[in-house]
Amino acid sequence: MLTESEILRYSRHLLLEDVGEIGQQKLKNAKVLIIGMGGLGSPAAMYLAAAGVGTLVIADFDQLEVSNLQRQIGYQTADTGSDKVKLMKQRLNSINPEIIVRCINRKMDAEQLSLELMMVNLVLDCTDNMHSRHLINAACVQAKASLIVGAAMRFEGQLIFFDHNQSDAACYHCLFPKSEEQVLNCSNSGVIGPVVGTIGTMQALEAIKYILGLPSGIKNRLKLFDGKTLDWQTFTVTKDPNCSVCGQKK
Ligand SMILES: [Zn+2]
Question: What is the CATH number of the domain that holds 192?
């Protein structure tokens, strides 16, 4: 049952056939882990907090730097030097005091990550480098956790959903085998803020749809966003049976 204040807060959700009171209750019961509180994590976390996702676990080990503010819209200039997760927890609870926000203020190893995965329904990878994405992917494959990956660089964004609950799910390693690892990331190649914001917002949208049980447009489908033309391209990603992370022959 939703409280009177929740009915008021989520009135625009309750008007939607796809959400309604049952959907809002699903959001309230959901637990989502968001890894990375930068340009992707900021809008993703703020939209999920606003939507009433009951428990958000936010992970980052960085302090806010002035160069982050060009795209990491959850923060303020006066906050530079402080831990991002502490700042974001305050921000999320100021948007929505009805939700629980838990902080992980350190770099997680595979073991801690696998423990955290047991306690959530869904993971959003909002990190900014391939090394972290491969680590998170491997942990999610092992834990059969659902994973929404976002990435952005220059004027380009990427979005994909791997539902490791399902046996036909591909994984991040099927898509980008480590041998082809790129060393580029937004700290050495630059990125335009609204492209990161678009991808982070899409991660939140997919997360909400997943929790509500609505079909996803990006399950095993890589979406590439071109911030110059505003075109989206879609590529189907198939499971690699020889993948060293998710394949049978691993
Ligand atoms: Zn794979």
Answer: 3.40.50.720
Centre of ligand 1 to C-alpha 126, Å, is: 19
pLDDT bin (cut points 50, 70, 90) of residue 183 is: low
Beta-carbon-side half-sphere exposure of residue 141 (alpha carbons within 13 Å): 21
**Residue 247 maps to a domain:** no
Domain span at residue 193? 4-236
- Are residues 188 and 170 in contact, defined by beta-carbon separation less than 8 angstroms? no
Burial class (CB in 10 A: 0-12, 13-18, 19+), 150: buried
The count of structural domains within the chain is 1
Q: What spacing in Å lies between the alpha carbon of 219 and ligand 1's midpoint?
A: 14
Q: Is 241 a domain residue?
A: no
Nearest to 39 by CA among 247, 187, 235, 221: 187
Helix (H) or strand (E) holding 25: helix 20-29
- The predicted model scores a pTM of 0.95
CA of 166 from ligand 1 middle (Å) equals 13
Q: Which residues contact 147 (CB under 8 A, 6 or more apart)?
A: 122, 123, 124, 125, 136, 137, 140, 161, 162, 163, 164, 172
**How many angstroms is it from 18 CA to the middle of ligand 1?**
32
Q: pLDDT tens-digit profile of 122-132?
A: 999 999 999 99
pLDDT digits (tens, 9 = 90+) for 64-79: 999 999 999 999 999 9
Within a domain: 250: no
181 C-alpha to ligand 1 centroid (Å):
15
The residues annotated as belonging to the active site are 186
Q: Is residue 49 part of a domain?
A: yes
